[in-house]
Amino acid sequence: SLFSAMGVDQETVSRAPSRIRWSVHEGNWFFPATINGVEGQYLVDTGANLSLLSESEAKRLGLNPSGGGSMGDSAGGSVALRAAVAPEVRIGDIVLRNVAFGVVGD
Question: What predicted TM-score, i.e. pTM, was given to this entire model?
Answer without folding.
Answer: 0.81
